[in-house]
Design goal:
Elements (H helix, E strand, L loop, with lengths): L4 H26 L17 H16 L4 H13 L3 H14 L4 H11 L4 H14 L4 H14 L4 H11 L4 H13 L3 H14 L4 H13 L3 H13 L10 H8 L4 H13 L3 H14 L4 H14 L2 H14 L6 H11 L3 H14 L4 H13 L3 H14 L4 H13 L3 H12 L13 H13 L8 H8 L11 H13 L3 H18 L3 H15 L11
Helix pairs in contact: 2-3, 3-4, 3-13, 4-5, 5-6, 6-7, 7-8, 7-9, 8-9, 9-10, 9-11, 10-11, 11-12, 14-15, 14-16, 15-16, 16-17, 16-18, 17-18, 18-19, 18-20, 19-20, 20-21, 20-22, 21-22, 22-23, 23-24, 24-25, 24-26, 25-26, 26-27, 27-28
C-alpha cells in the first residue's frame, strides 16, 4: 500500500497534538493549588523574641509556599501571637493543600468563633466529618449552635461528655441551655457537675448562683456568687491538646505568665517557676511578673519571698490591680497583722467582697481583742468559703469571745456532724474537735456547758502516747473538772505543767496552766474571766 506524504504529515501532526494535550493536562493536574499571600503583618510593637519567631516562620513560608505543613505551622505561630487575619489565611492555604487534615480546619474554625459564628460552625462541623472523637470540638460546636440557633446544641455537648466526662465546659453549656428552657433542676445539676470538676470554674459558680437564687436556695446562691467573683476570669475546664499546641508557640511575656499561672493552679511549682523565670528574663521590670512570683511563692509557703515579690510589684506599679491584696495576704499569713493593715484596707476598697481579705481582717481584729468587729468580716468570709476550716474556726472563736458561745458551738457542731457542704463532711478535723471540746468544757453558759460531751470529743485525741499535746490535755482536764472529776483533772494538769516547762512554752501560758491546776486542787472547775 502506498501512503501519500500529505497523509503522513497529518498523522504526525495529530500525534504531536495529542502528546501536547496530554502533557498540558498532566501539568494542570499536577499543578499545586494557588495559595493566597498573607496579609501585611505589622511587627513594629512586637517583643524582640516574638518578632524573630514570626520572621522565621514567614521565611520558611517563602521557601516552601506549597507545603501544607509549613502553611499550617505558620498559621499556628501567627494564631498564638494574635495575628488572626494572617493565621486564617495560612490555615486556609494549608487546607487547600491538604483538605483532609483535621488540624487546619479545626484551628480555623476556632479562630472564627469570635469573628464569624456561622462560618466557624461550618468549619467545625466539617471538622467533625474528618474526626468524630475529639471532645473539645463538640463543645465548640455546641457553643456555636447555641449562638447561631442552628442545630442541636444539646446533642453536641452530650457528645463531648460521652468522649470525656471531665469536660466542665460541656456541663456549663448544658446548664445554660436548661436554664434558658426553664428547667432549673437540670440546669442546677449541670452547673454543680461543672463546679465539681473544677472548683475554680467561674461560669459554673455564676450559673449555680443564678439558678439557686431562683429556686430560693439563698445560702447556696450567696456562696456561689462569692466564688464566681473570687474566680472571675477563670475558664471552664475544657481539655484541648490541639489548642494547647498553638498556645505553646506563644513566647510573649504574657504567654509565659499565663502558662506559669496555669501550672501554679495545678500545683506544679517547678513548671510554674520555669515559665515565670522566662517572663522575668524577658521583662525584669514587669510588675505583673513579680505579682505572679508573689502568688507562686505564697502558695508554696515561702512567705518572705512572696512579700518581697509583692512589694517589688507595687514599687513598679503602685496601682497594680490586686497588688495590695497579695501583700496583705503574704503578711497576714505570716501573722504580721499590723504591717498588713494598710494593705488590707486598700484591698477591701478594691474588692469589698474578697473573702480571703475579709478572713485576714477578721483575724486581725480578733487579735486586737475586738471580736464583735471581727465577726462581720468573718461571716462574709464564711459565706464565701463555707468549707474552709480556718475560717469556720476563726468565726467560732470570735462568737465565743463576743459572748455568743451558743453560736460558736452550733457552728462547730455542724462541722463535727458532717453537715452537707461543711468541712467535716470529709472527716472530723482534730483542731475543730479540740476547739468545740474546750468551749463546751469551760463556757459560763450553764445550759450550754457539757463536760461529758467535751470529754467524748477530746479522749480520742490523746489515745496515742506520742500525741498528748499540752493544749489537748489542758482541754480534757477542763472537761473532767466540769464533771467534778477533779482527781483525774489534777493528774492531767500536772502532766501539762511538766511538759510545758520541758518544751519551753511561753511563761504566760505556763502561768495559765498553773492557775487551772490550782483550781482543780481546790475542787473548782475553770471558768474564763468575764471580758470587759
Amino acid at each position: 500500500m502506498i501512503v501519500k506524504h500529505s497523509s503522513v504529515r497529518i498523522i504526525v501532526l495529530l500525534i504531536v497534538l495529542v502528546a501536547v494535550g496530554v502533557t498540558a493536562l498532566t501539568l494542570r493536574v499536577n499543578r499545586p493549588p494557588a495559595v493566597q499571600p498573607l496579609p501585611t503583618i505589622d511587627l513594629s510593637s512586637a517583643e524582640p523574641q516574638v518578632r524573630a519567631k514570626i520572621q522565621d516562620a514567614l521565611a520558611s513560608l517563602a521557601a516552601k509556599p506549597n507545603d501544607a505543613e509549613t502553611q499550617g505551622r505558620a498559621g499556628m505561630v501567627l494564631h498564638a501571637h494574635g495575628f488572626a487575619d494572617a493565621a486564617i489565611t495560612a490555615y486556609s492555604n494549608a487546607l487547600l493543600l491538604a483538605p483532609r487534615e483535621f488540624r487546619w480546619i479545626y484551628y480555623r474554625g476556632a479562630l472564627l468563633e469570635s469573628r464569624d459564628a456561622p462560618a466557624a460552625l461550618r468549619d467545625l462541623e466539617a471538622a467533625a466529618k474528618l474526626r468524630d472523637d475529639y471532645a473539645a470540638l463538640y463543645v465548640r460546636i455546641g457553643r456555636m449552635r447555641t449562638q447561631t440557633a442552628a442545630g442541636d446544641a444539646v446533642a453536641a455537648f452530650r457528645r463531648a461528655l460521652l468522649l470525656n466526662t471531665e469536660i466542665g465546659a460541656a456541663y456549663v453549656g448544658l446548664g445554660q441551655l436548661a436554664q434558658d428552657a426553664g428547667d432549673l433542676d437540670t440546669a442546677l445539676s449541670n452547673f454543680r457537675s461543672a463546679a465539681l470538676i473544677d472548683q475554680a470554674d467561674a461560669a459554673a459558680h455564676a450559673g449555680i448562683a443564678r439558678v439557686a437564687a431562683r429556686r430560693g436556695l439563698n445560702d447556696e446562691a450567696a456562696a456561689a456568687e462569692a466564688a464566681a467573683k473570687r474566680f472571675a476570669g477563670r475558664s471552664s475546664s475544657m481539655p484541648d491538646p490541639l489548642m494547647d499546641r498553638v498556645l505553646e508557640e506563644a513566647i510573649t511575656t504574657e504567654a509565659f505568665l499565663a502558662r506559669s499561672e496555669s501550672a501554679r493552679r495545678a500545683g506544679q511549682f517547678d513548671a510554674a517557676l520555669e515559665q515565670l523565670n522566662f517572663a522575668l528574663r524577658i521583662a525584669p521590670e514587669n510588675a505583673y511578673a513579680h505579682a505572679a512570683a508573689a502568688r507562686l511563692f505564697g502558695q508554696r509557703g515561702d512567705l518572705e519571698t512572696a512579700v518581697a515579690a509583692a512589694t517589688r510589684a507595687l514599687e513598679l506599679k503602685p496601682d497594680l490591680p490586686g497588688g495590695a491584696r497579695l501583700l496583705a495576704m503574704a503578711l497576714g499569713y505570716q501573722n504580721k497583722l499590723s504591717e498588713a493593715e494598710p494593705y488590707i484596707a486598700a484591698a477591701l476598697r478594691e474588692d469589698p467582697d474578697d473573702v480571703e481579705i475579709r478572713h485576714i481582717e477578721g483575724v486581725r481584729l480578733a487579735a486586737l481583742g475586738r471580736p464583735v468587729d471581727a465577726i462581720g468580716h468573718l461571716e462574709i468570709a464564711f459565706r464565701g468559703k463555707p468549707d474552709d476550716t480556718d475560717v469556720r474556726q476563726a468565726l467560732a472563736q470570735a462568737y465565743h469571745d463576743a459572748g455568743r458561745s451558743a453560736d460558736a458551738v452550733a457552728l462547730l457542731r455542724a462541722s463535727i456532724s458532717g453537715t452537707p457542704g461543711t468541712a467535716a463532711s470529709r472527716g472530723v478535723d482534730p483542731s475543730v474537735a479540740l476547739q468545740l471540746g474546750w468551749i463546751l468544757a469551760i463556757t459560763s453558759d450553764d445550759a450550754l456547758r457539757d463536760g461529758a460531751a467535751a470529754e467524748a470529743l477530746l479522749r480520742p485525741l490523746v489515745q496515742n502516747p506520742d500525741e498528748r499535746a499540752p493544749e489537748v490535755l489542758d482541754a480534757l482536764a477542763a472537761a473532767l473538772a466540769a464533771q467534778g472529776k477533779f482527781e483525774e483533772a489534777i493528774v492531767l494538769m500536772t502532766e501539762v505543767v511538766t511538759t510545758a516547762e520541758k518544751l519551753g512554752i511561753a511563761e504566760s501560758t505556763r502561768r495559765d496552766f498553773g492557775v487551772r491546776l490550782t483550781l482543780y486542787r481546790q475542787n473548782r472547775p475553770y471558768r474564763p474571766p468575764a471580758r470587759p
